[in-house]
Amino acid sequence: MTLSSLDRIGDAPGRLVLSGVPEGMDALVLTDLVAREAATGNGTILHIARDDARLAALHETLRFFAPEVEIITFPAWDCLPYDRVSPHADISAQRMSALAHLATGKPQPRGRIVLT
Question: Is the separation of the CB atoms in 52 and 75 below 8 Å?
C-alpha cells in the first residue's frame, strides 16, 4: 500500500470497509483516517479487531501514533449467547462504560476511534 493509495482511500465518500491491511500498518491507516474525518467534523472511526489480543496490541499502537485521539474500547463477551455462565463483571462494566461514553460524550476535535 502506497501513500497515494492511502490518499485515494481517505478521499472516498461514504462508508469505507478496509481489509487486508498488514498488522502494524493498520494503526497508521486508522490514524490517518481519523485525522481526515476530524477535519470534516465527523471524527469517529469504528474498527473491528479479530480477537482480544489484536485489540490490545492495536490500542497500544494507536496510543503511540496518535496520543491526542480518543480511543474507546468495547470488549467482546467472554461467554457464548445462552450459555449458563454469566459474563465477567469487569467486561460488562467496560461495555456499559463505553456505551455510556458514546451516548453522552461530545465528539472530540481530534477524532475518536472505537475499537471492538
Answer: yes
The burial of 9, by beta-carbon neighbours within 10 Å (0-12 exposed, 13-18 middle, 19 or more buried), is given as middle
Report the alpha-carbon distance of residue 6 to residue 9 in Å, rounded.
5
Q: Which tens digit of pLDDT belongs to each residue from 14-29?
A: 667 777 777 778 888 8
Tell me the pTM.
0.76
Q: Collapsing DSSP states into helix, strand and coil, what is residue 115? A: strand
Distance CA 5, CA 8 (A): 5
- Is the pLDDT reported for residue 60 higher than 90? yes
Count of beta carbons in the 10 Å neighbourhood of residue 80: 8
Give Cβ neighbours of residue 114 (< 8 Å, ≥ 6 apart).
44, 45, 46, 47, 72, 74, 98, 102
